[in-house]
Amino acid sequence: MSSRWPVTACSVAPYEIRVCEPLLAEGNRALTEYGHVPGRRFVILDSAVAPSWQDRLLSYFRAHGIQPTFMVVPGGEQCKNLETVGAIIHRLRQFGLDRRNEPVILVGGGAVLDTGGFAASIYRRGVPFIRVPTTLLAYVDASVGIKTGVNVGTAKNLVGAFHPPALVLLDREFFSSLSPRDIASGLGEILKLGLGCDEDLFDMLDAAADTFATTRLRDAAGFTILARSIEVMLDELRPNIFERELCRRVDLGHTFSQAFEMSSLADPLLHGEAVALDLNLSALISVRRGLLSEKESARLANLTDELGLPGVPPAMQPPAVWDSLTERTQHRAGRQRAPLPLRIGECTSVDDLREDEVVDAFRELAARTTAAATADSATRPPRQAAAARLKHVEERP
Amino acid sequence: MSSRWPVTACSVAPYEIRVCEPLLAEGNRALTEYGHVPGRRFVILDSAVAPSWQDRLLSYFRAHGIQPTFMVVPGGEQCKNLETVGAIIHRLRQFGLDRRNEPVILVGGGAVLDTGGFAASIYRRGVPFIRVPTTLLAYVDASVGIKTGVNVGTAKNLVGAFHPPALVLLDREFFSSLSPRDIASGLGEILKLGLGCDEDLFDMLDAAADTFATTRLRDAAGFTILARSIEVMLDELRPNIFERELCRRVDLGHTFSQAFEMSSLADPLLHGEAVALDLNLSALISVRRGLLSEKESARLANLTDELGLPGVPPAMQPPAVWDSLTERTQHRAGRQRAPLPLRIGECTSVDDLREDEVVDAFRELAARTTAAATADSATRPPRQAAAARLKHVEERP
User: Does B327 reach chain A within 8 Å, measured CB to CB?
Assistant: First the structure.
């Protein structure tokens, strides 16, 4: 009679990320063909998207014989908490969601995808869900992998799950209703992939930097950049999709970013804006260590500016930056595993960052922001010139 | 340039269920050798167990150079909710739990294992945890598979995760502090495995039924029964551990059990008690359908009684039983998939239960309880004679 029983829990979950434009065309069944419960779907909709898109979604579903039940949740970090998860669970139960045959449809930015995805991951131990990203940032980031999660207090993504979506459907038409800052924020995350993993992507961004204001990546060059971003991201994620390995090149830009993101409660930076600041801080640390040339760090700074991404918030103090690294070290199981750029398109990981070098590099970055602001007010158009340019062409569907 | 990207999220998580007696012997390193953070561990402890075992656990850990941080949570269904999960998450963050190298140790009954396991499943998208079941029910049920979860309102296990433990450590010494009702409740879950999957196990239970009061399954026969239970359970779970297939023989006894479990808020039935009532109800339905012989149904009823398991609570009404089936149908993705016994050791699954046959069978079961109670008061020792017998030998470590 045995007294040891080995068990292996083996799970294989395939999914597809699919460009599907125009997603809401009457003849396009992509959003309705998954699932077997006829006549209805539960749709979680980002409040930032609802004014422009809820009516079109309603028409689309009705044209396919489906009555959607919408739950509109606040977009951005304000929805990303356990209270929203509880509210979604409650609504799913009221709806009587089928456990297997009725995918929850998530339409929104990264925070809504992460929060709705987490609720779906734990409702009856996991129900299928479809992601439809509506922001550039969510398109290239939250949509791609299998992570879901919400914040607890000030701790970002403290709870969550690795839970693959059933399907990811991409359509750039949603970008038409984004603000210029949202576009720039998404470009910040693409910039990370270029700097850390793929020089070609960095070059593409550089070459097209002055077009994004008008194209919003809805032209052929934009398509190429987005496809490349997803491919670079997948190259990093595929062999490590459950993060067994905690040294990850895609963590570049995510060591100090929480400090930037949390720096001003009154006017918080967007995620991609904070990532871009982290990239520049990491580059300055690399330069100080002789890992990266000053020229490449300057090239990064230039492109960051051209993409309409902001400088260091004036109120921010150095200790916040070090605290962010401390928190990340805990998340990365006791080692810093801090990615630092080696050149455009390549990065390494270090465990020995010292507080003094981080603080010095931060001061250098902050001084650069101050200098640029002074120069701006004297000789150039106002700061965030690119973002201002974008504003002129903002459009609504 | 592609516009479709297939991704496969593949996860292989091995774990071991191990009998390890006596677990808390000074020389036994089983509970401390997993993990790489020296000097400390976070231990979630069932309040039902704390009075008898916390000091011994403390001595054990200290003898191994470990300072345990205990979090005592209420045992039983009262802990099994999102509030407790939130409290655990908060404490794990305060503790600064390492994401990979510091397993959360859960010591308790099924509710504590399910709740603590769920908190560990979602904290930083999953940290390792070790289960140490302290009840007979948890030993043969909650410990074995990969399910975690909590109730939301009256909905049992409405949220949860499939998340394998790092390790399961079994020691029957904990049974010494169980109440007779807890022992009987655990026997109810073993009875299910015997009736639905394994005639030998049913026979073993039958043969030893009058010994459990004194042995509490801590003798050789008890060991054989427990090992057989785990093996039968694993035979069912291994090919279907993520419940891709929703027709499951181990769901026998879990179609109507929620109605029994929820029938009396003042004095709720224990899980295994409710399961045993469901088994008998299912058997009566099977008899009415000609699927099971009256003789085998009577044999089940006899053994149920001998094991000290109770009859139908007097206050209970038939609609609750049908509602439970309706809820389970939703959980089983729109089909009843109700297991019904065919003979001792074998069951089938049906989708066409009618309300009238369920209600009639329930009335028959309730009448049997009433008749037994009348006979008891006239000619036999008080009802739940076996449980009363157990009370005399209750011991504390």
Answer: no
